[in-house]
Amino acid sequence: MVSESELDKYRQDGTKIRVVRDGLERNDVIGIVVAWDADTVLIRRHNRRVVKLSRAYVYEPFESPRTDLTQATE
To answer: pLDDT tens, position by position, for the chain (74 residues)?
Structure first.
């Protein structure tokens, strides 16, 4: 689960992030952190739509290499 301090840093810096939800890259959500609570995070996508996602997903800066979840499940 992503920590409060990481989410706050992403929000304050306006860091473009990637949310890895499963092993398929096409299912990733890319945007910026808007808000969060104990269970969910609001992400504003590039088309200005807001998506509410679980905090259990992997949140990482878009510029960093993508985390491969297919190896983690084997």
So the answer is: 899 999 999 999 999 999 999 999 999 999 999 999 999 999 999 999 999 999 999 999 999 999 988 875 54
Handedness of CA 21, 30, 51, 4 (dihedral sign): positive
Place of tokens 């398929």: 24
Question: Token match 């689960």: residue?
Answer: 1
The helix/strand/coil state of 48 is coil
Tell me the fold of 4-61. Answer: SH3 type barrels. (2.30.30)
pTM of the model: 0.88
